[in-house]
Amino acid sequence: MKKTDFDSIKEKFDNSGVNAPDALHEDRIAGMLPEQPLQALPPKQSRKKVVAGVSAAAAFAVVTAGAITFTSLFHQPFSPKFVAGTASLRAFGSRDELTEEVKKIQNIRKRNSTDPRDWIYGNALPEKSAEYNHFDAALPDTGSSSGSSSHNSTYVQATGVDEADCVKTTATHIFYLNGNTIHIFSAEGKNAKEVGTVEGTDENSLSDFYVSGDRLITLGVAYRDSGVYTEAVVYDISDVSAVKKSGGFSQSGDYLSSRMIGDTLYMVSNHNARYELDLPQTGAAVSTADSATMDEIPYTDVFSVETPTGSNFLVVSRVDVKTDAQVTKSKAILGSGNIIYCNQENLYVTAYEFAPEVYNNLFKSFDGNYWDIYGGETATQIIKISLTEGIDFVASEKVDGMVNNQYALDEYNGKLRVATTSRDSEQNEINNLYVLDENLRQLGSVTGFAQNESIKAVRYINDTAYVITYEQTDPLFVIDVSDPSQPAIKGEVKISGFSTLLVPVDDNTLLGIGYHTTDITEGDAAMEMQDGVKIVTFDDTSEALNFRVENGKIKIIDRYVSEKFSDQDSNLERCVHVGDNIYLLGTHYKEEYRYEDSVYNGYVEYRADIDSTPYK
Amino acid sequence: MGTDMISRARAGDKQAFAQLYAQYKDKLFRYAYFKLGNEQDAQDAVSDCVVEAYLGIAALKSEKAFSAWIFQILHRCCCAILSRPKDMALEDDGSLVYHDSHLAPELKEALAILSDEDRDIVLLHVVAGYKTREIATLLALNHATVRSRLSRALAKMREFLE
């Protein structure tokens, strides 16, 4: 009988005899549950007074008082020193102070068995989840494509700042990360073929990568006995058929995100300290050195946010690729992050945190009753890091609610615009837009719009923010931010059907990724877009659609269906353009059964593949 | 059924919630047991999970999402238990008490040969029933990576067991 590995293993689990014991019977469970699930929150605290329109001195005073309140509950003396220019980042006077702080947080966490930050708002998707980030507003954009007009693959948010991706292009080659291997294809239209590879290893699981001149830089995660590390490995790709490793760098923590500005790589990871001496470290990548010796980041380069709710460190490193990762600098902040936004001058990292009074409750509830904290709101902590002269932590501040993804943040004329989703006193979801100054103090805001809709995407174009929320009809809110102290909602527009990303290919052609082409039919007056714009797109049913908008209506010009990817066992994943061709990249899966030593075994193999079609 | 149960649970109907839970209790316990290695921890994890799930049920929109949602909470509860320092209890004669367990030893050994993350991927897919695309999101990995690691891990386990 043919049985796949999956069937065989699943059967073993199902027949393992491991079942819920009596103590977990549903009748006993009902008795364990607290009185009510979370519903109405207490009236909204007017915490905003702390952040909005307060002078620097007053803000400093308020925070100092808060710091003393919770440190006095413990016997460790810790006089927080404030980093110049900001009221709420703390420096450490010695390594002992740092380890004591970590220990203190862990004692709290032990009593509260899980990190409730995560689930108050349900799932917060990490930034790396590519499928979710690349399907955003169907709008013209402030960002641009990385690469020249002759080729592109990665949509980047800020000009001059490259983002890592699973697919990259040059004028002559396409690089495609599939599984744990980067396949290098020649961009020769229908004759495109694989000409080289870069392999991850069992130790280094590849997440994404950059191509910069004759260097390819992979970012990946390595699991060693001492913990989880994020590794950057630099390869020389001047000869793609014989790629050579030329250097590497690693830092503690799970890979959060990265950016490249020119020849400088900035990598960000989240390191969870399992015990107080488990401080973040950096060193040579394990793939390029036999025994990598790691060094702790000096305590003088480690800071802390005002209310760290976990012993997580955000580790930021600057790696010089020109020297093959020989020159590096790292710093860390206690208080983790999950979303980053980066432009050429500044890196902003956000993390969601509890409101201070909620945080103080955590410390006060010695009975370990973590239900107390659910009366509070979540806030997003924003940390501003200046990149102009190295890595300098400049400011840190909180806004209400949660940030959806990197596109919710944008810096323009030195002001940071942030869109968040939070809950009102009746637990309805509401949305907010804040404008913050160079020190992240609030200049103005619009709060409470689009009740019960989550923000899906935000695009900032100079003085206007376009906010798309999740609904069948994808309503779009247009917010005028030309006066930072008074952002104003200008209007609401309905756009139907699209949840996608538009990438400019040339002046009047846009490459669309992720369109549901079945929703596009001739004659649809679906969008408010410029007439004459030609759009080439594909979706994961392996079809590329070439259509034009005329008089507000869609006119289909051309369709291309990829034979290679149209069978059941194939999965079309990405689409890029190089020269006059669109290249489609994906995977073929093959299940095979073979007899080996008279045992019938099932194997699943997969193979990366490429198809192309001219688009001009 | 479906959304009715969810809205009843949201309104505080513990029985409705318990009935939803009943459909998944074996899988939940199985997942926690193989992830944590012993019955006591697994029981703690499932109890923590159930309480949190009930408290946070306002976040759940439909019954279709219940399975994925509750396993995500369970996964986090398990991770939290794993990151606690182990309590070393002592017997009367001064030797350590090991909270160990002898359920399904072969399967446990087969899982032990995998890396932590590969083990997670196998448990999430085979026991908790997540699709590989969902696992990619949950663990913040590339989708293709999850598929290939899953297939290699299952093959390794099968070879070990047969």
Radius of gyration of chain B: 17 Å
| Model regions low in confidence, pLDDT < 50 over at least 5 residues of chain A | 40-87, 111-147, 359-376, 470-475, 493-543
End-to-end distance of chain A:
52 Å
Euclidean distance between termini CA atoms of chain B: 42 Å
What is the tally of helical segments of chain B? Answer: 9
User: Strand percentage of chain A, roughly?
Assistant: 35-45%
Low-pLDDT residue intervals, each spanning 5 or more residues of chain B: none
What's the helix and strand layout?
The complex is a heterodimer of chains A (616) and B (162).
Chain A: H1 5-14, H2 26-32, H3 48-51, H4 56-71, E1 81-82, E2 90-91, H5 95-111, H6 117-120, H7 130-133, E3 144-145, E4 151-152, E5 155-156, E6 162-163, E7 167-169, E8 173-178, E9 181-186, E10 194-199, E11 204-212, E12 215-224, E13 227-236, E14 244-252, E15 254-261, E16 264-272, E17 281-283, E18 294-296, E19 302-304, E20 312-320, E21 328-334, E22 339-342, E23 346-354, H8 356-364, E24 378-386, E25 392-400, E26 409-412, E27 415-423, E28 429-436, E29 442-449, E30 455-461, E31 464-469, E32 475-480, E33 488-494, E34 501-506, E35 509-513, E36 534-539, E37 543-550, E38 553-561, E39 570-578, E40 581-596, E41 599-614
Parallel strand pairs in A: 19-21, 35-36
Antiparallel strand pairs in A: 1-2, 2-19, 3-5, 4-39, 6-15, 7-8, 8-9, 9-10, 11-12, 12-13, 13-14, 14-17, 15-16, 16-20, 17-18, 20-21, 22-23, 23-24, 24-25, 26-27, 27-28, 28-29, 30-31, 31-32, 32-33, 34-35, 36-37, 37-38, 39-40, 40-41
Chain B: H1 3-10, H2 14-22, H3 25-36, H4 39-55, H5 66-82, E1 89-90, E2 96-97, H6 105-112, H7 116-127, H8 132-139, H9 143-161
Antiparallel strand pairs in B: 1-2
Helix pairs in contact in B: 1-2, 3-4, 3-5, 3-7, 4-5, 6-9, 7-9, 8-9
